[in-house]
TrEMBL record:
Keywords from the UniProt entry: Aminoacyl-tRNA synthetase, ATP-binding, Cytoplasm, Ligase, Nucleotide-binding, Protein biosynthesis
Binding-site residues for ATP, renumbered to this chain: K254
Similarity section: Belongs to the class-I aminoacyl-tRNA synthetase family. Glutamate--tRNA ligase type 1 subfamily.
Species this protein is from: Candidatus Amphirhobacter heronislandensis
Gene3D superfamilies found in the cross-reference section: 1.10.10.350, HUPs
Transmembrane segments: none
Protein name: Glutamate--tRNA ligase
Gene designation per UniProt: gltX
A Pfam family annotated for this UniProt entry: Anticodon_2
A GO MF label: tRNA binding
Major site of localization recorded for this protein: cytoplasm
EC number: 6.1.1.17
The Aminoacyl-tRNA synthetase class I anticodon-binding domain, residue ranges: 341-459
Length: 465
């Protein structure tokens, strides 16, 4: 049984990459019958904001990624990190570094001038001649011989020579823990067995393995997810292409749709569809395109996550959303969209709508139209004005206000006045919906029902000159 965690920093809202990471951790935990935990990594005191934490938790709740237990906050665990760091110092696995910012800047400049990789030169490692006063940080004594290797659940064997690493700071001069150190201490204390995160953390992972070993902790299994790419845009904001004519992609950013999850909820994507699509950004279930979160958890396997980068496709997301909406009872779709109407109207709207926003647009004719005079006037002329007035009167007197009866009333008026159907159907459509395009006008009128339909017709301020 896997113990997984999602560990966001509340320096912003939950974006697509973070949401996918949370989802894969949740799915793997549920698939194995394990535990899914939430850790808020809020050690960045200046950028971490309560409203961002609230937004992240709200997004996770909306997605349905329920957690096992309350959130853990790093800002409340300083004593734990302090104790772990001091133990490493006592065991000779970490040390005090009194190097000043100016000294480190000078070192970096000299290394860059020589074409060397900028890194700390371990000048305080092994020393005990600590000054009586002065600020210092604690650095981890990284092994300098051999290699650091992991067996990644997605990428396989990954190994880097230890000489490539310097000695990272684990406690800053103000006593606060750095990311890599706090994460390792927390993973050990929380019993995390599987760490699933983006491939951009791969270097961090190797650093953390050293710290796990130094603390005597069991090293978790690691899985590094592929990047998510979005369409590259040109200077005009249009999708760019390669010389071959193929679409050009780049790492997902705010410029190419890497906005927060709430953006997609606001545009009318429903949570099960978002979960479905996020899962497909790196993982697929053979022979199945649309599935529920429960089906995802049952089938999900980390070993089947792709190594190659995933490509975000808004149209694909909208298509999946449409399939999920169509699978719901019309009453539930109406409730999600905040629309009070019949099942028949919802089914009409879903013929084209892919999102709740588009559904509301498709069914905008359910609301009374505004500013009709000019539009309606353009549909009326000397040939059909009198016939339209007669049609309104005929509709008001209909005993059965059905689609068939309404259509027949239009046909009868057209026949009496020598008109073709559109010459009465179109002004009727405009009077009822405010638009020149809508579903079948007789169907629209029947859904609106007699009292609303006739009220709208009577409310038209003028159908003449």
């Amino acid at each position: 049984m896997a113990v997984c965690r999602f560990a966001p920093s509340p320096t912003g809202r939950l974006h697509l990459g973070g949401a996918r990471t949370a989802l894969f951790n949740w799915a793997w935990a549920r698939h194995s019958g394990g535990t899914f935990l939430l850790r808020i990594e809020d050690t960045d005191r200046q950028r971490s904001l309560p409203e961002h934490e609230e937004a992240i938790i709200a997004a996770l709740d909306w997605l349905g990624l329920e957690r096992d237990g309350p959130a853990v906050r790093q800002s409340e665990r300083a004593a734990l990190y302090q104790a772990a760091a001091e133990r490493l110092v006592e065991e000779g696995k970490a040390y005090r570094c009194y190097a000043t910012a100016a000294e480190l800047d000078e070192l970096r400049t000299a290394q860059e001038r020589q074409g060397l990789k900028p890194q700390y030169d371990r000048r305080w490692r092994g020393r005990t001649d600590w000054p009586a006063t002065g600020e210092y940080c604690l650095r981890f004594a990284t092994p300098t011989e051999g290699d650091c290797a992991i067996s990644d659940l997605i990428r396989g064997e990954v190994s880097v020579a230890n000489k490539e690493f310097d000695d990272p700071v684990i406690l800053r001069a103000d006593g606060s823990a750095t990311y890599n150190f706090a994460a390792v201490v927390d993973d050990g204390e929380m019993g995390i067995t599987d760490v699933i995160r983006g491939e951009d953390h791969l270097t961090n992972t190797l650093r953390q393995v050293h710290i796990h070993r130094a603390l005597g902790q069991e090293i978790p299994r690691f899985a590094h997810l592929p990047l998510i790419l979005g369409r590259r845009l040109d200077e005009n904001g249009e999708p760019a292409t390669l010389e071959s004519g193929e679409p050009a992609y780049e790492r997902l950013s705010k410029r190419n749709m890497a906005v927060d999850v709430d953006h997609y909820r606001q545009m009318g994507i429903i949570a099960p569809a978002m979960v479905n699509y996020l899962a497909q950004l790196g993982w697929t279930q053979p022979g199945q395109e649309v599935y529920t979160p429960a089906e995802l958890a049952a089938a999900f396997e980390l070993g089947k996550v792709n190594k190659s980068a995933a490509r975000f496709d808004l149209e694909r997301l909208q298509w999946i959303n449409q399939q999920h909406l169509r699978a719901l009872p019309p009453a539930e779709v109406a409730e999600l969209a905040g629309i009070e109407t019949s099942a028949e109207a919802i089914e009409i709207g879903m013929e084209k709508a892919r999102t709740l926003t588009e559904l509301r647009e498709e069914l905008s004719w359910l609301q009374p139209p505004e500013g009709l005079d000019a539009t309606l006037q353009g549909q009326l002329g000397d040939d059909n004005r009198e016939a339209f007035a007669a049609l309104v009167q005929r509709l008001e007197k209909l005993e059965e206000f059905s689609q068939g009866a309404i259509k027949q009333a239009i046909k009868d008026c057209c026949k009496e006045h020598g008109l073709k159907f559109p010459r009465l159907g179109m002004p009727l459509r405009v009077a009822l919906t405010g638009k020149t395009k809508s579903p079948d006008v007789a169907l629209v009128a029947s859904i609106l029902e007699s009292n609303i339909c006739c009220e709208r017709l009577r409310s038209v301020s003028k159908i003449g000159k």
